[in-house]
Amino acid sequence: MSNIKGYLDMELLRFTTAGSVDDGKSTLIGRLLYDSKAIFDDQINLLKETSKQRGDEGLNLALLTDGLRSEREQGITIDVAYRYFATPKRKFIIADTPGHIQYTRNMVTGASTANLALLLVDARHGVVEQTKRHAFIASLLQIPHIVVCINKMDLVDYSKERFEEIIADFEDFASKLEIKDVRFTPISALNGDNVVERSLNMQWYDGSTLMHLLENIHIGSDHNHIDCRFPVQYVVRPQSKEFPDYRGYAGRIEGGVFKPGDKVTVLPSGFTSYIKSIDTFNERVKEAFSPMSVCITLKDDIDVSRGDMLVKADNKPMINQDVDLMICWMNEKNMLLKGKYTIRHTSQTARCIIKEVKYKIDINSLHRLKDDKVIGLNDIGRISLRVTKPLYIDSYRRNRNTGSIILIDEATNETVAAGMII
Amino acid sequence: MSSYNLTHLKELESEAIFILREVAAQFEKPVMLFSGGKDSIIMFHLARKAFYPGKIPFPLMHVDTGHNFPETITFRDRLIKKTGETLIIKYVQDSIDKGNAVEETGTNPSRNGLQTVTLLEGLEDGKYDCAMGGARRDEEKARAKERFFSHRDEFGQWNPKNQRPELWNLFNGRKNIGEHFRVFPISNWTEMDVWQYIMYEKINLPSLYFAHQREVVNRDGVLLAKCEHITLKAGELWKKMRVRCRTIGDMTCTGVTESEADNIEAIIKEVATTRITERGGRADDKRSEAAMEDRKKEGYF
Q1: What is the pLDDT of residues A358-380, one digit of tens each?
Q2: For residues A14 and A145, what is the distance between their CA atoms, to the nearest angstrom?
Q3: For B55, which of A46, A70, A238 is closest by C-beta distance?
Q4: Which of the residues A13, A289, B62, B208 has an alpha carbon 20 to 30 A from that of A22?
Q5: Would you call A8 and B196 a contact, using CB atoms and an 8 Å cutoff?
């Protein structure tokens, strides 16, 4: 029974992995899944059969992570695939994304919800263009933790010097980026060195194994618990015999800590009131923080609807119709300067016009391209927008939930861009 | 664990509630699919939580193949009666009678594929623009790439190559007239999470999930329960065994597992040590390696 109680007390860590065909990413994921018993016998059997049929040598672990038929046929990963495993300490969600430049949009998608990014570096090749691109995207998306796995250490004689050389190269490059927490681990995914078990081949390494890092890295501060933000998602009005006058505002806390009795301001009306109760199905809670889904009632009967935001009177977000942001373009159709798009921000929907492209970024060199301002698929650039109504925004750096937007093409309804507010 | 940190179950619950509310806010006429299995029972539980103290602002829909385990139907009817929520039942038999679906023949004719016809008819009849389901990404590899909000064209088809990117918590449910969405609020849950949640929340389940005596036949390694729809082949025998269901589907294609686990704690221990996937016992998935992907493209859940 005690170990069942343990299951109920685990944390959730979401991480993303990006890498190319040859850096051993599939092998590493395969090992994490296999060593944590997340791969089942019938999957292994199917894998053996399919590997044999394709003429692959041994077990092709990539087949396990490549889900769609077209991907299996072409032998490439073209979309974000989600994998799950758990250890007694944590449950993990992996957003596994292809690393090639033409899949930048998939990397961005996987990174948007991640607490941690795993960057794989081939010890023989060191920091290459692709490593830089992945590190840049991780910093752009403000993934709180980065673990650089220097893989294939077995092919460089488990050399400490090589490991340190790569760290120095990475740090030199990363100094230009905004990365809060970066760790380095020398591993061999193929042989299992420093993945789950400590490596006997690298006695010189006294840091953590990859699994130890994944299980212990502190993620409690990844959410913003300072600036109170509650976008109203849905109004609950039962009008039943039991609850004739109940009017609750359902939503998810996107920042800060709310408590009953707190004085709150409703945006955009500017009315203030006090929190009467914070309700969930199970109980009335004494405090609510991100990412809890709750239902808030107010002491005064004021008009509040979806798209409105409850904030603390003394800590308001920026209220702006003009928004500056970094965007990643995700559609085959280029972005139209002066074009009109639908914008979604928290529970708000509005229309906007693209006012200006300030620059585009060459994501390999990180140079700002001020002459080439055509933003197409997989491009990243800085732009400014004018929105039809004010949005209640924070900078993405301060709060990933209230600092992010998506743009939607009004003709096709497709999501065409991801934006991070500056 | 720091005080401002949720457990994984609380975080998954919060995410699912967020999605359910987003559906209620973004769609005009959503419906929640309900099969009577544990995943749809959890979905129902989460929907009650999401809109509490209000009622669930959408109906449930059961696509009844007529091949259900009787225990599932009894449980379903009792749950609806107790909670007072609305349930719509669509019968595969009606689609067959109308000539829109053709029954398979053979020793265990499956109505699994026919469900898609009845489901799409049901969605069209009710003019539903969003159908929520309890599918999880850990179930099957084609599902590992499914979005929370999954767009379907006017034929109800899924196009895996043209899925909309899904970023942060910003879900895009916009569509043209005639198109609809499938939404999967418990995408990120694993089989283990579901069982832990059932234990944590003390949720009632059909008795089928717990070990019991039943007559079964071993067909190609899958244990099928005795029922009127299955005909024995030469050399096959009904045999009494102690079994339970890990997943509930049609009697014709849902394998049962030999098990002694007759309570939640025992099931969780069994799930933690088992070496076969949950759908490993489903004959419908074994028809080809891409069976699920192909059915999903046609509009299957």
Answers
A1: 999 988 788 899 888 899 998 99
A2: 11
A3: A238
A4: A13
A5: yes
Pairing of strands B239-244, B87-91: unpaired
> Which residues of chain A neighbour B277 with C-beta distances below 8 Å?
40, 42-43
Strands (E) located in A81-225:
81-86, 90-98, 116-122, 145-151, 181-186
Contact B118, B63 (CB under 8 A): yes
Taking CA–CA distances from B15, the nearest residue in chain A reads A293
Task: Quick: pLDDT tens for A394-420.
Answer: 999 999 999 999 999 999 999 999 999
Average pLDDT over residues B253-264: 87
Start and end residues for every CATH 3.40.50.620 domain found in chain B: 8-192+290-298
- A46 CA to chain B: closest CA distance, Å? 8
Cis before A186 (ω within 30) = no
Residues whose CB falls within 8 Å of the CB of residue B224, separated by 6 or more in sequence, listed in order: B108, B216, B217, B230, B251, B252, B254, B255, B256, B283
Which superfamily does B8-192+290-298 belong to?
HUPs (3.40.50.620)
Q: Which of A1, A3, A5, A7 is the best residue to mutate to test the B interface, defined by the most B CB atoms within 10 Å of its own CB?
A: A7
* CA A70 vs CA A74, A78, B58: distances in Å: 6, 9, 36
A370, burial (CB in 10 Å: exposed 0-12, middle 13-18, buried 19+): exposed
* Domains defined for chain A, CATH in brackets: 2-216 (3.40.50.300), 229-312 (2.40.30.10), 318-421 (2.40.30.10)
The minimal CB distance from B277 to the residues A43, A406, A408 is found for A43
Nearest CB to B11; choose among A250, A281, A291: A291
Instruction: Tell if the CB–CB gap between B293 and A43 is shorter than 8 Å.
Output: no
pLDDT of B162 > 70? The answer is no
Are the Cβ atoms of A401 and B169 closer than 8 angstroms? yes
Q: Which residues of A touch B175 (CB under 8 A)?
A: 413
Q: Which helix (H) or strand (E) holds B14?
A: helix B8-26
pLDDT of A167 higher than 90: yes
Backbone angles phi, psi at A51, to 5 degrees: -60, -45
**Nearest-Cα residue of chain B relative to residue A80:** B145
